Amino acid sequence: NRVHRKVTAGNCGKCHVKEYQEFMKSRHSIGWQRMLECGKLMALPKDTCSEKCEQCHNIQFKCDSCHTRHTFSTLEAKTPEACRTCHMGSDHPHYEAYISSKHGTIYTASQSMILKESQSVQSLRSPVCVTCHMPQGIHDMSFGLTRGPAGSGLSYVDRNGATIDDIELAKKREDMLSVCNTCHSLRFAKKTLTIADDIHKNIGAVIREAKDMILDLEKEKQLFPSLGEMTKIPLASHAFVLGNLHVYTGKSRMERLFITLTKSAAVTWKGAYHENPGYTHLYGWAKLQEDLSDMREEVKKRAFKKATESLK
Hints:
This protein has 15 helices and no strands. The chain is mostly helical.
């Protein structure tokens, strides 16, 4: 008879035991924790955080992030639109890459007719987000994923940050292939994912070059402010520069160029794994090469300026 104001995973898990256990294995279950560790959060005004980071990262506590309250419709939670609020934008354009891919195009063209006729995603002509990431309704969204952020040096890590071994990686790839294989031949699925893997590796090489440029400039004391300078947050700025936790303020031009480059990198490899040629190439790889060229030009300008000053 008691109504809970917050639709927490723990409350739902009292009845939905299997779903709760699967959810607790997924990255969604540590969304809030990851937010607290992020440099961006520390650099934002506290009174605006609730309208920014927290709106997505509170999924760690809220089942109604996907099963929106009042109806808690499972059909609604299965649509790509349910994922769009969080999985969009310049650094993780999952929705944009999916919806403009061939899979997404077929979904868009057919959804108005099919979703009215059936409560089952299986009736759709094309896969949606949950088809691949939540097959058979499992709530572990890490299902079948074998690649982490490009340039991180890691193939994939679990929700606790531990590197997954080759045996587990192979199993995850087989799991994903089993989903692809329901519609495509195994040969085609393997070829497609392998191409995406190669793109991921190429992006990693670009990011490593970009990182080396920044480190070399730091050694030559050509970064302003330097990596070792303290920003307005209580952590050294260099703790964020070469990782994935970027703050928005207190950065040199080279660091800002690097952050832009990492966003283009994310668009590229996420586009590749979602089979979207536009996001992989035009919005991704082409933009990534432009960003890399901007960083190279900046290095040359600084070298020229330094050489000129030494002649005076």
